[in-house]
Amino acid sequence: MSAFRIAHSAAVLAAVVLAVLLIAGLPARPVFAMGSNSDSSSAITGPADPDFTAGKAAIDRKDWAAAVPLFQKVVARDEKNADAFNWLGYALRNQGDYEKAFVAYNQALQINPKHRGAHEYLGEAYLKTDNLAKAEEQLKALDGLCTFGCPEYTELKNKIAAFKAAKPS
Description:
The chain starts with a helix and ends with a helix. It has eight helices and no strands. It has helices at residues 3-24, 50-60, 64-77, 82-95, 98-111, 116-128, 132-145, 151-166. It is mostly helical and 169 residues long.
């Protein structure tokens, strides 16, 4: 069999598998929780980091005080983990430490400028500090990243609308 026929057969097989997955409603790529990002360069491909896992569980419990040191350990070991910096920023923001949250979100975006979760949460942090213009910049960035829309864009857009509605004109 020629190299062309082998490559063609492999491409046809891949297309069939993708079609079956789509028809069955199964994801064709890894699924990430809201706030993480399928475009992230730091998606876990090996065994999960136990501190990351414990940090995410703490966030799910809204235990910000437990989440912060766990994600600090993760980013100390893996300074290229955009998801960990994003979750660290999220926990810090929810503790009310906006200054450190901004640093963490910006680190996530420096690692991965397309990290939709970091753009959303950074926009939300700007709203918490009454900086509508900066929040709208993050919404604009998400608009560019989410060609056909995405949950992060919709969530931030709704929070900006609520922020504007709550402010006297």
